[in-house]
Design a protein that fits this description.
Blueprint (H helix, E strand, L loop, with lengths): L8 H10 L3 H14 L3 E6 L9 H12 L7 E6 L5 H14 L5 E5 L2 E2 L2 H7 L3 E4 L4 E2 L5 E5 L5 E6 H17 L5 H7 L4 H23 L8 H7 L1 H4 L13 H6 L4 E3 L5 H19 L1 E6 L4 E7 L2 E5 L5
């Protein structure tokens, strides 16, 4: 069993400097006492250009395979999002490895886009007054020749602008040329792909909730409840926060915690430590009290690190 007092002081100082796994181990131990179930963290960077992807699901499954989960698990998640299919897979992994076939999602900071989908798969979402969920409408990212994001568009808004333009063109009884010129900027095949992407995002969310915290509610009603998450009509922009009170109004099972209570202080410290790690030294961190996997930043790419490797 790991005992910090047996570690040489020079190693302890180095671990603090590098934000090694050992600096967070005690937080998992204390949090598990508070929550009554094992705690696993899933963090991806808001600073570096990474996203939730299938490899993350593999790393998470590797952690869960080595964790005793008869009482379920609490997944502490902080991420700007990524691939919706990877998020769906993560939900399935968490449910299947859990002894109770469910898990809790703990949001200390921001669980946006695809990470909001992962929260939808939980039996409850634990948040404070400053925790953020986000819209899950797909985004179209336009990079420059160096791969740097220069423009970001809502797929929903692109589809709506195309439909609106097409509708006005049909109704026009005079000069059609201005409409035809603008419609030439759209590729109908791309519009179909964007429609499919929006439909997929909606389907993942509705199915995930329908088999979990909204079990028994018809799909049509779940979709209605989720409108603020599915389209930018109310949020206006993709990154706008959806706080606990709004999530509760949607019918999500949200447990609101006082940010000054002891349990949340532990959650917050864990958040600060791992978020600092994925903003400075690595791009991703998936870990429990016993095991830690990180994705290191290398020149122009990511490399996975093993247990305790930072």
């Amino acid at each position: 069993m790991y005992r910090e007092e047996l570690v040489p002081i020079i190693q302890r100082v180095r671990n603090e400097q590098m934000q090694g796994h050992e600096t967070r181990r005690h937080l998992y131990v204390e949090l598990e006492k508070q929550l009554g179930r094992p705690v696993v963290a899933f963090f991806t960077s808001f600073r570096f250009p990474v996203m939730i992807e299938n490899e993350d699901a593999d790393m998470l499954e590797g952690i869960l395979q080595k964790t005793d989960l008869p009482s379920g698990l609490a997944l502490v998640i902080n991420s700007p999002g990524g691939d919706g299919l990877a998020a769906e897979r993560i939900v399935n992994i968490c449910r299947n490895y859990s002894g109770t076939k469910e898990y809790w999602a703990v949001v200390p900071g921001k669980a946006k886009s695809a990470s909001t989908m992962i929260c939808f798969g939980a039996s409850k979402i634990i948040m404070s007054g400053t925790s953020e969920l986000g819209s899950i409408d797909p985004q179209v990212i336009v990079p420059d020749e160096n791969g740097v994001v220069v423009k970001r568009f809502s797929a929903y808004n692109i589809i709506e602008s195309y439909r609106d333009l097409f509708s006005r063109a049909i109704k026009e009884k005079g000069n059609l040329q201005p409409y035809l010129q603008q419609l030439a900027n759209y590729d109908e095949r791309e519009i179909k792909e964007l429609e499919a992407a929006c439909s997929l995002s909606e389907d993942i969310a509705v199915r995930t909730l329908g088999s979990g915290m909204m079990r028994g509610i018809p799909d049509r009603k779940i979709k209605q409840k989720l409108e603020i998450f599915l389209t930018p009509k109310r949020t206006k922009v993709h990154g706008r926060p959806i706080y606990a009170d709004e999530a509760l109004k949607c019918g999500l099972n949200v447990e609101l915690r006082d940010s000054k209570e002891e349990c949340w202080k532990l959650v917050y410290e864990l958040y600060i430590r791992i978020n600092t790690l994925v903003a400075t030294r690595v791009a991703k961190c998936i870990e429990s009290k016993d095991h830690s996997f990180v994705a290191k930043l290398t020149k122009g790419s990511l490399a996975e690190g093993g247990e305790g490797d930072v």
